[in-house]
Specification:
heterodimer, A: about 100 residues, alpha+beta, Ribosomal Protein S5, domain 2, 4 strands, about 35% helix, B: about 300 residues, alpha/beta, TIM Barrel, eight-stranded parallel beta barrel, two-stranded antiparallel ribbon, 12 helices, about 45% helix
Chain lengths: ~100, ~300
């Protein structure tokens, strides 16, 4: 999947994570901010990158603002924002396929 | 991934607690409170522009959270919205125990949902017939069609009244004593019992009005409901206590079952226990009381 336009998913509430994406011609960049940065920053970035990889996203500017989300919430928000960026988040989601 | 056991059509459902599927904090902790069922909500709790995000969140919650013995039902969006079909795909793919049809008004509504559930079960390799259904009756039309609705599919385990929308269509407010809902509650209970499915009352919206809430729960039990929708974990305990059989009911049920066996062996059909005439339906009800007592963990006997 290719990031086509700016999109955002998630909230700034506790246990959630807000993820935004923008198209980029300079490969993939992931910026993580988290209130548990010291302990989990690296793990958050790994989860984001794995999810992007599963979705076949190879370029884009990804900003992650974490409020202590669990792994599966991070996955859910990254998937949602990527589908939103190509206007495909509302139906025919490949549940259990690249979304897992 | 957490594989869930095959859902049971008949099980204890005293409390069904609503949780917004879009809020990670709520869905993560939902099962620890000990309600019998949780209802993850894709409908009214989720803003119109967050329906997509709620589905992603729901799918991963279903796949990752071990809800244990708590039943997991998802309330999908109404059939008059553009959301319900994708809701069904998400719910079935995630392996929820069942779904609640919001604003259900006819047997056709049920059949339409069932067709999409079956298609989704086939698409995602889920056992056919696994996903249960329940109907929320929220309008006068839904209430009037209750029997047709609950008999429209073998997946149907019950129906619930939803008071908020119903009271608006009837031009009434919530009233102490429940006179404004009396007919609707009675009709829905009759339909559910006639169909042999369960029946659940609407939630009580005033969280801080303990007295009003408790009075309504007691009335629910007296009327014959199996359980109640709730919106706050604080409401669980009282409902569970109120719906559990009393010691007196349990003792009477035991006495009935023991005496029935004796009488039946001597060829007697109808007889009296404690001066009250009893026959086979009493015996069946006594078994139901003991089963409920066991499920509520208040039975200490040996039957």
């Amino acid at each position: 999947m290719e990031i086509k336009k700016y999109a955002v998913a998630g909230t700034a509430e506790s246990c959630d994570v807000q993820v935004s994406v923008e198209p980029s011609s300079a490969g993939l960049s992931v910026q993580v901010k988290s209130r548990v940065m010291n302990r989990y920053g690296r793990q958050i970035k790994i989860t984001v990158l794995e999810t992007l990889n599963r979705l076949g996203v190879t370029s884009g500017c990804i900003t992650v603002n974490d409020q202590g989300a669990l792994d599966f919430t991070i996955k859910a928000r990254v998937e949602c924002v990527v589908f939103r960026s190509i206007d495909a988040s509302e139906k025919d989601i490949p549940w259990g396929g690249i979304v897992q | 991934m957490i594989p869930r056991p095959k859902p049971k059509k008949f099980r204890l459902r005293r409390t069904m607690m609503f949780m917004n599927a879009q809020k990670p904090k709520l869905i993560r902790d939902a099962y620890i409170y000990g309600c019998d069922s949780i209802i993850l909500d894709l409908e009214d709790a989720v803003a119109e522009n967050q329906k997509d995000a709620a589905r992603f969140s729901l799918y991963h919650a279903l796949k990752n959270i071990d809800y244990g013995d708590t039943e997991v039902i998802v309330r999908i969006n109404g059939l008059d919205t553009p959301h319900w079909q994708e809701d069904i795909r998400c719910v079935v793919a995630g392996g929820a125990d069942g779904l609640r049809i919001a604003k259900c008004e006819s047997a056709d509504d049920v059949r339409q949902v069932e067709a999409h559930v079956l298609a989704a079960e086939r698409e995602f390799g889920v056992e056919e017939g696994r996903t249960l259904l329940m109907a929320a009756l929220e309008s006068p039309k839904g209430i009037m069609n209750a029997y047709d609705i609950v008999t429209a599919s073998p997946r149907m385990f019950g129906c619930a009244i939803s008071g908020g929308d119903f009271r608006k269509s009837m031009h009434v407010q919530i009233v102490r004593g429940g006179i404004e809902m009396l007919t609707a509650r009675g009709l829905v209970l009759l339909a559910a019992r006639a169909a042999g499915v369960q029946c659940f009352d609407t939630m009580y919206p005033f969280i801080d009005d303990t007295e009003g809430f408790e009075a309504e729960v007691r009335q629910n039990r007296e009327m014959g409901f199996d359980g109640k929708s709730i919106v706050n974990p604080r409401q669980i305990r009282y409902v569970h206590e109120t719906f559990a059989p009393t010691e007196k009911e349990i003792a009477y049920a035991e006495k009935l079952i023991r005496s029935f066996n004796e009488q039946a062996n001597q060829g007697v059909g109808v007889y009296t226990v404690d001066g009250k005439m009893v026959d086979i339906p009493f015996f069946e009800d006594a078994h139901r009381v003991l089963a409920l007592a066991k499920a509520c963990d208040v039975y200490r006997g040996d039957l």
